[in-house]
């Protein structure tokens, strides 16, 4: 069986995804290149912004399946979001303690 080139396989996958997203033929989305579609959208401040939607096809891996790779990326993202939330919580707690310390010092200074 003849093997189809990576470039053709990847291009077909991108075409499939863009069609799946129902962007093909929609006037607000324009094809930028074989990997991206773009649109001009007005943001909340009333400014026109250029947004792009791109499709990246992951390389085939010998050490894991496509499903395993996808799950690993999902797990890594979720772990980073949890870590970010923990840092925000710790930062908020520190800010609260520092504020209480400043207020206590101010009250101590007012008594003198």
In words, what does this structure look like?
This protein is α+β, with helices and mostly antiparallel strands. The protein folds into two domains: 1-57, no CATH class; 61-112. Helix content is 54%, strand content 16%. The chain has helices spanning 6-20, 66-111; strands at 30-33, 36-42, 48-54. A three-stranded antiparallel β-sheet has the order 1-2-3, with no helix packed on it. Strand 2 (36-42) and strand 3 form a beta hairpin. The model has no long low-confidence stretch (mean pLDDT 87).
Give the low-pLDDT segments. none
Q: How many structural domains does the protein architecture include? A: 2
Give a count of the beta strands, DSSP E runs of length 2 or more.
3
**Into which percent range does the helicity of residues fall?**
40-55%
Q: Strand-and-helix sequence, N→C?
A: HEEEH
What topology does this entry show?
Blueprint (H helix, E strand, L loop, with lengths): L5 H15 L9 E4 L2 E7 L5 E7 L11 H46 L1
What is shown here, in short?
With 112 residues, the protein is of the alpha+beta class. The chain contains 2 helices and 3 strands, in the order H-E-E-E-H.
């Amino acid at each position: 069986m003849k093997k189809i080139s990576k470039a053709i396989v990847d291009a077909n996958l991108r075409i499939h995804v863009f069609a799946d997203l129902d962007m093909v033929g929609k006037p607000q989305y324009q094809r930028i290149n074989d990997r991206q579609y773009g649109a001009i959208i007005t943001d909340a401040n009333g400014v026109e912004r250029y947004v792009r939607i791109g499709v990246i096809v992951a390389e085939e891996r010998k050490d894991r399946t496509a499903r395993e790779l996808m799950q690993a990326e999902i797990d890594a993202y979720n772990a980073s979001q949890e870590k970010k939330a923990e840092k925000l919580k710790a930062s908020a707690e520190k800010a609260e303690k520092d504020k209480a310390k400043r207020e206590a010092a101010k009250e101590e200074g007012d008594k003198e």
